[in-house]
Amino acid sequence: MDICVYTLGCKVNQYESGVIVAKLQKAGFNAFEGLKKADIFIINTCAVTSEAEKKSRQSVAKMVKLNHDSKIFVIGCASQNNAEQFKKYANVKFIKGVASKTNIVDLIEKEGVFVDELPLNYEKTDFAKITKTRQTIKIQEGCNNFCSYCLIPYLRGRSRSRSIDDVVAEVIECKDKVNEIVLTGIDISSYGKSFGSSLGELIKILDEKVDVRLRIGSLEVNVIDDEFLQTVSGSKNFCPHFHLSLQSGSDGVLKKMNRHYTTEQYLQKVKLIRKYFPDAGITTDIIVGFPEESEQMFAETCDFAKKVAFSDIHVFPYSVRKGTVAEKMKQVNDGVKKQRAETLSEIKIQLKKEFLSKYISKEMQILTEDIDGDYIAGYTANYIKVYLDKKGINENTLYTVKTTGLFNDGLLAEVI
Question: Rounded to whole angstroms, what are the CA distances from 158 to 17, 78, 122, 151, 194?
Fold first, then answer.
C-alpha cells in the first residue's frame, strides 16, 4: 500500500512527518513524502496564518485529483484549530489534532474525528527518517509566550521539553549519515526549564558526543546572555547563525504584540552575539501591518532593521487569526500591508547584499546540499548560501572554498 505524507508549515511539522514516514516504512508500507499518487494521503497541516489553513484545505482537492478513490487523513494544527472544516470532504476519513499525531500508523484502519486534549508532558516518539544532508531533530514542543497575534500556544499547548538522553540518542543514530544537525522546536529558548536544564547545556553535551555541525532554530531574546554565548562559543561544532525573533522594530508595536522586550534590549543582545561571534549571521522575522501600526511605527521598524544590519529578514504581512487578542484591534488596510511588505523587502535585499559582500574573496567551509542547474549549492556555518560548479563535486560533503563574488541569493566560490 502506497502512503503519501504531505507536510505544510514549520520545521517541527517536517520532523513529525519524518517520524510518521519512518514508522510507516517500519510497518511495511511504501511510505514517502512529497505529493505523488497514493492509496492513502496523510496531510500534516499548518494553521500559523489563515493562508496556511487555506492551503491545508486546498491540499485535499489536490489529493483527490491524484486518486479519486484515495483515503485522506488530516492531522495537525489546522484540524486542532477546526476539525469541522475538513469533514465536508468525502475522501477525508480520519481527522486528528496535534496530540499523538505521529501514532497514525496504529490508526491506519480507523475512521472518525480524534481531537484529543493536548498533553502536559513531552510525548516521546520514534526517531524521524534520516535525510541525506542535514537532519532536523525536534527537542521541544509548545509555547508559553502568548503573543497577541498567535494561536500556537492554543494549538500546540504549553512548553515542554524532550529529555536530553532521548535527544542524544537520536543525534547519535544519524551522526554517521549526515554532516549537520538542526535543533528545532516551537520555542527552543525555553528548552530544559521544566527539568532544570537549558539549551546551552544540551549543545555542550551534544558537542561532546558527536562531531557534526550543530545548528539551532529560532530563538527568543531572553535566551541570549553571556552564559549561553560562552557555552556555544566553546563548541567545536556550533554554527554561528542566530535566527533571533524580532517581529517589529517599534516599541509601540512590540507592546501591542505582547513581546516582552524593547528594541534597545534586542539591540544589546545582538551586540553581545557579535562580541562572541563577529561573523555571526543574524536573521529574523518581521511582521508588517500589525493592527494599529502607524506610518511612524513602520518607519521605526525599517530604521531598526538597518541599525541591526540583519543578514536576512523573513517579511510577513500581518494575518488575522480568529481567537487572538490582535483580532479585536483596529486592522491595517491590506493595500498598506502589501506596500509595507514591499518596502521592507527592498531593505532586506540591500542588507543581505551588504552582509554577503563582506565575505567575497574569503576562505570558508560549506556543506553541499542541492544541485541547482549547473551548480551545487551549500551553506557556510553562518548561513551564507554558496554556489559551486557541480563538476566533480559531491552532495552532503564539507568543502573548503574561496568565494569569488555575489551570485543569485548568495556567493559564487571555487574549491580550494
Answer: 21, 17, 10, 12, 11
pLDDT averaged over every residue in the chain: 96
- The answer to whether the beta carbons of residues 189 and 199 sit under 8 Å apart is yes
pTM above 0.85, yes or no: yes
Q: Which cell goes with 245?
A: 525573533
pLDDT (mean) for 183-201: 97
Report, as an integer, the average pLDDT of 135-157: 97
123 vs 109, higher pLDDT: 123
Q: Cα(156)–Cα(161) distance, rounded to whole angstroms? A: 13
Could you give the CA distance from residue 222 to residue 224 in angstroms, rounded to a whole number? 6
Instruction: Report all structural domains of the chain as residue ranges with CATH numbers, in order of start.
Output: 2-114 (3.40.50.12160), 363-415 (2.40.50.140)
What are the grid coordinates assigned to 11, written together?
520545521
| Mode of pairing for the β-strands spanning 40-45 and 71-76 | parallel
pLDDT exceeds cutoff 80 at 132: no
Q: How far is CA 250 from CA 196, 239, 289, 294, in A?
A: 34, 29, 12, 10
Q: What is the pLDDT of residue 335?
A: 98
Cβ–Cβ contacts within 10 Å for residue 330, how many?
A: 7
> How far is 329 from 320, CA to CA, in rounded Å?
10
Q: Tens digit of pLDDT for each residue in 272-324?
A: 999 999 999 999 999 999 999 999 999 999 999 999 999 999 999 999 999 99
